[in-house]
Known about the structure:
globular, mainly alpha, single chain
Amino acid sequence: MSDPTDGDGPTPDGDGPTPERDEGPQADEDPGVPSEAVLDELFATIESRKEELPDGSYTASLFTHEKGENAVLEKIGEETTEAILAAKDDDREELTYESADLVYHLLVLFAMKDLDVDDLREELRDRF
């Protein structure tokens, strides 16, 4: 993933930089990042954007949006719908893409609510 805070391309729905272009290094830029660390690195970047609020950052804009957390909640609803439609259409590539958008926005919501990836891991572990 490149840095969506610096991205200037439209999202699939045309409303600005895509989060996957806003957070962290491209896979080809840092091939040494183990896949199991991706969520932790993404969440650390989200937390950094929350703290620093850099200009031009899509992630930072979610923390300062005039709609407040409703902006993120709307994105979660939108990405959920898109993931459902991709699954219904048996489009594995699109399902993966939209699921990544959904997880990203869910992690932004976690940061807003002062939760983190470990909270999610603990909940999932408790369900075993």
